[in-house]
Amino acid sequence: MSVSPPSTARRSLSLFLFPVCASALALVMAPLASAQVAPASAAASTLAGQASDWLYEGSDIPRDEGWRFGVLPNGLRYAVRNNGVPPGQVSIRVRMDVGSMFETDSERGFAHLLEHLTFRGSLHIPDGETKRIWQRFGVTFGSDSNAQTTPTQTVYQLDLPSVTPTTLDESMKLLSGMVREPRITDAAVTAERGVVLSELREQDGPQKRIADATSAHLFAGQLLGERSPIGTTAALGAANANSVQAFHDRWYRPDRAVVVMVGDGDPAQFAALIGKYFGDWKEAGANPAQPDFGKPDPSQPVAKEIVEANQPLALTLAMIRPWKKRVDTVENTRRLYLEYLAQALVNRRLENRARSGGSYLVATVSQDYVSRSADVTSAEIVPLGDWKAALADVRGVIADAVQTPPSQADIDREANEIEAFLRKELENAPNEPGSRLADDMVRAVDIGETVTSPKGQVDMFAAIRASATPQVMLDISRAIFAAPVTRLVLTTPTPIEGGDKALLAALAAPVTARDDRVAAAKVDFSQLPALGQPGTIASETPLPGLRVQRLEFANGVTALVADNKVEPGKVRVNVRFGSGNRSVAGNAPNLLWTGDYALMASGVGPWGQNELDQATNGRQIQMGFDIDDDAFEMTAESNPADLRDQLRLMATKLAAPRWDASPIERLRVGLLTGFDLNDATPNAVLDRNLRGWLAGGDTRWAPPSRAAIEGLTPAAFRAFWEPRLKSGPIEVQIFGDLESVDYKQLLAESFGALAPRQPLAPPGGQSVAFAQHNAKPFVAYHTGDKGQAAAMIAWPTSGGIDNMRDARAMDVLAAIFNDRLFDRLRAEQGASYGPVVDSHWPTGFEKSGGYLLVGSLLAPKDVNRLYSVADEIAADLVARPVSADELARNAGPIREQVARATTGNLYWMYLLEGATRDPRYIKAAMAIEDDVTNISAADIQRLARQYLVPGRKWSLAVLPKGMTLAQAAALDGGAIGGGK
């Protein structure tokens, strides 16, 4: 059975420290009409083949009764299910049992190339027209319609909104034609080869080289070690229509296909449609033999040094066992959960050592069944200087785990986390989007497991955790940390003395068991400092047109509360305080960049990170952090039972913050460790710098320098954040299942009990500049592959809350621009894998901060091409109104996205941020659907004329270090533009 234990990510840093909800909101807005599919007729149902519980053959896993399964006479299997979340949507997945490990040496990359070709359309539809048809149905390309290729499967995905019998029938017809008879011509292969090579080029860089070399070493002698789905330039370069067609005919067969349909309709009708459009599919020849993926080879080298300049030290220690095909049973599920528990026990110990100042920045273990090829337990380690000490320390923690049983208290702590996650899934089950259910089914088929209901998961785990005794967990730990094959990889910026032999010697060195277990301590919420007497409500009013209450307390705290059953058992909390980016001037140094990790990690009252973990163990209590333009935000996803302590903890963070030094030092070291990655690829350069460049160097978005990071101290951190935690207004949003709680009293006891807050004087950061127009592109450089580059163009627009209709029309203009750019740069020329056009219209600044950004990762020779194409598109949008069809094809998917999003709490919370103090946000929220619906071609042309002014645009090229614009232009024989 497919097991989804809770993530341990919140207990550890990301590796290098780099920095809509689909529910039915019947109680916030009037419910949307559900366009359900008509019931199946008796005649149509005969097309659905034979009912069969093929997923559960040989299994005793409790069956999820929501699914209906069947097999067509040609061998195609299907799974269908009714699900009304979001209303009117049907999610379709077509899984083909073929991936990159099914290719021959001369076909490397063909499975992925075929996926691209398939999405261009079928023999029966003009090239590219499928995308346009689905756009007219409200489908957003890339999110609602997409595909993926892995080593073991190719999956085609379609989420069809506002479905009708006609659109669903037509979509199944299109999808069937694409999969069965894709348009494989030499012209199409040439075009998509360019796109795939662009994707390969964009992926290329130190991280990909490290990943490829690591896979080749870990899985030496197996197909997985040499069969990346992206393929090779040699094999892709030799691909033609005949060779790709042969690959398709060999592997695309009905008996290798699974079709999944989940959505707002009758499962019998879904099954009938599958039979109608896939039932007459006939295979071409005999079913080919399944490839032998191979087994881990003990004779291959154990250690490998990978030298990559400017990359931080990193270690991978892997214990590799042969993959075994197992029938998915309750006993198999027990093993999976116990294996996860064993990992969680070790990860908590590793994190405890890192927090207390160990030899590594971060270390985590994970155990995975990889691509039906290997059962792998791996430790990923980022050393702090001495890699040998870091390796020894991690091996020591593992040695302790396989020598000494854990305490029952330790086991219970990790089991509590899993149980809380599973109960949360059970509570959210009525609100589970159909797209996730469809994806979970495809994942289960791929790994040879089953699915069960959330209730089945909870019940099974209750029995499983009862069996998790210290001795049982010791036995499981010994099993997952033992293997016939061990591999060690060190990534290093410079060669180490002794090379691979030094790695082997370190691995052979004796291990001293390290007892880094977290000491148990009695922690409860009574230990938090008192906040004061419960506050009184000064005013209480409903928001017009919404089932949302506005509360204001005597101390000035305001709140928006929506009590609804949109997400049963779930309560979302967002605490907005202070003035966010507006709290600092745009030309002054700041420490905004430290808040994302270190502010919440620095503790609350008497509690540091370990105490916080213990206090919240097994409970739905969190503290996320974000910075908005006009406020700082603490966020949480809680439940009615934990809401009192959730609000208490967040209020105490503001009233009595703790200032532990270790998270600040860990952040400092982590940022320095990854600092040299900042110019390793064009994408890294853009991720770090683009927002600051667009804002004309505004320090609120400009990245910190190495010197600034090196100079970070706990005292400076506290001096910057302490006044921001205690000053400025507080707005609390609580949306969710509040029927069983007295939310007014809970607010009064927490935020209402705080002392009145003083305003934080604005330092002049109330507006945002834009980069100055440049006649020639500004040039930045990366240190990566010479074949990689990026090009960007941006025009300043506006911002603020007064004219949100124009903001929404700019989203449509961006979609039209993006659609044209996609057709020109990708579909026709194959110059870019993913060109992007984005409209940014911040509401936190009046009439400033907005821009329309056009850009793409490219080859250096294509930089000029992007500028030329973008200029042509912009000029045409200014000169001519868009056609009714083009407007509908691009506004329709946005309208559908809005309609789906407005059925969820999270979206309304976002729209209503700031509404307790500025009623314009309420008006803007209520108008969003009308605004998007009523956008006209005249609006698009008016905004293009207003903002796409050549004399105001700013352009950027990111080139390989040492290359000039002239040299890049010469590669394509043209002059670099981007100015005027």
- Average pLDDT for all residues: 92
Number of domains: 4
CATH topology of the largest domain: Cytochrome Bc1 Complex, Chain A, domain 1
Number of H- or I-type helical stretches: 31
Q: Biggest β-sheet, characterized?
A: 7 strands, mixed
What is the highest CATH level, the class of the largest domain? Answer: Alpha Beta
> What's the CATH H-level homologous superfamily of the largest domain?
Metalloenzyme, LuxS/M16 peptidase-like
Cofactor: Zn(2+)
Keywords: Hydrolase, Metalloprotease, Protease, Signal
GO biological process, one term: proteolysis
Protein name: Zinc protease
Model description:
This is Zinc protease. InterPro entries: Metalloenz_LuxS/M16 (IPR011249), MPP/UQCRC_Complex (IPR050361), Pept_M16_N (IPR011765), Pept_M16_Zn_BS (IPR001431), Peptidase_M16_C (IPR007863). Keywords: Hydrolase, Metalloprotease, Protease, Signal. One of its GO terms (molecular function) is metal ion binding. The protein is of the alpha+beta class. The chain has four domains: 67-278, 2-Layer Sandwich (Cytochrome Bc1 Complex, Chain A, domain 1), CATH 3.30.830.10; 303-508, Cytochrome Bc1 Complex, Chain A, domain 1 (2-Layer Sandwich); 526-753, Cytochrome Bc1 Complex, Chain A, domain 1 (2-Layer Sandwich); 778-972, Metalloenzyme, LuxS/M16 peptidase-like (Cytochrome Bc1 Complex, Chain A, domain 1). It is 40% helix and 16% strand. The strands form four sheets. The chain has a seven-stranded mixed sheet with strand order 1-2-3-7-4-6-5, sandwiched between helices. Strands 13-14-15-19-16-18-17 form a seven-stranded mixed sheet, sandwiched between helices. Strands 8-12-9-11-10 form a five-stranded mixed sheet, with helices on both faces. The chain is globular, with a radius of gyration of 29 Å.
